[in-house]
What we know:
There is one protein chain. Helix content is 46%, strand content 10%. By secondary structure, it is mostly helical. It has a single domain (5-15, 29-285, 389-485), classed as Glycosyltransferase (Alpha/alpha barrel), CATH 1.50.10.10. Helix 4 runs parallel beside helix 6 (117-135) and helix 9 (192-202) packs antiparallel against helix 10. The longest helix has 28 residues, at 30-57. Mean pLDDT is 94; it is low at 6-26.
Amino acid sequence: MPSILPLYHGGNDRDGRQATVDASRLVESDEAASDKARQKAVVAAFTHAWEGYRRHAFGHDEIRPTTNATNDSWGGFGAVLIDGLDTMMLMGLDEYVAEARKVVQADDFAKDYSASFFETTIRYLGGLLAAYAASDDELYLTKAVQLGDALLPAFNSKTGLPYHEVNLQTGAAKNPSWNTDNCILSEIGSVQLEFKSLSHFTGDPKYAAAADSVMDVLWEKREQSVDGLYPVYISAETGEFRDAHVTMGALADSFYEYLLKQWLLTGKSEARYKAMYDASVDGMIKHLVARSQPSGRVFLGEYSGGQRVNVFDHLMCFVPGMLALGAANEPDAARSAAHMELAAELTETCYRLYADQPSGLAPDVISFNTASARPGTPDYRVKSGAYLLRPETLESLYIMYRLTGKSLYKEQAWEIFLAIEQHCRTPSAYSGVVDVRHAKPELNNSMQSFFLAETLKYLYLMFTPEAEAVPLDKFVFTTEAHPLPIFQTSAGG
Length: 493
């Protein structure tokens, strides 16, 4: 199994040979020196957040960063700790890794607790698998197996579509009353990387089989999709779509990301996922892509009732990174170039949402204007001004930088980091803000685990030398930014 860590912490090449040093590169360029200083600043930010968590909330899921209270919304297994574990490893924070390992060792994932199937999979299972991939420490795989076994009963619906929540001890699974029989597209279609990797690491096919059963249902329903775009609600009992609302944002987002990444994770051997991904991008371009007025910014809307709705949320900012990654693996040169051009335009839109605000932070939800408008008229109005420490724009900036080499993306990422430092840092950690339209926004007293797992990871990797970066042709990042190694499968897909 390829390990992430030698890429960062020296010693050997991948084939075990002692690494050599190119003497011509010993003189550090100004850009390299700047990157090193910026990377240290990101590590310092992670350290600050971890130290506050360690002082006030160690072993709990999260710290409330302005009051120092604890939050256990994810079962009390230590969400910040497990979700951020591979980030610590990449940063070489061995003392923190040792501390976290003790908590993982004591965790019992067969707890009498009704867990969110999706969130538990992407934060905990993904975190454990990435920690194992980075370290070869069998403890993390053992715990991943325990958790994977506890999650499997969620798939025990009539269709095999997983329920929203599952009791980790009893296996009782259900959808909540507010959502009746409905499954959410992003929740059922964004766990496949984790379950397939668990089967790959253990040699036990049952985990991948459960995840693939979901894709079997969706594959069979592809003719009922909206040109490759799937409605956000699906019946767990019949597999039928509950409405015709489609989006690349909340309730759907990572499903589309995982279509591409399932194909990549399995060594491009499962062709149906590439076909589904291609169809979804074609549908997205047909129904969702638009330009704002008067500035002509490219954005994604939603599609409901046969027409586009110009609502754009921050979660959609994963799309340019997805498009760029797809373009880099697309054999059709014209299609690849078109998708990369669209990725660049969407990346610029996402960055501008930060740069437009007095705080330098992006709002969570906006509504774009597409009607004719005079120059100087705002292109959008803010529907939710909150900034939740989200990673999606930084994720896309990172992928765009790695695939194009354009330093512009590094500079934009650094601007965002500085805004986070200025407005989100508390004496104990980091907090989201209530309204980015204020020059000094109020804090919301929340630091979700994805800040350490994703936001700071992508910032750290942005300023990592190319030769030491996690290679995008050997690893696939999950929706929670956990790098999992690509493997070959005999499936024809």
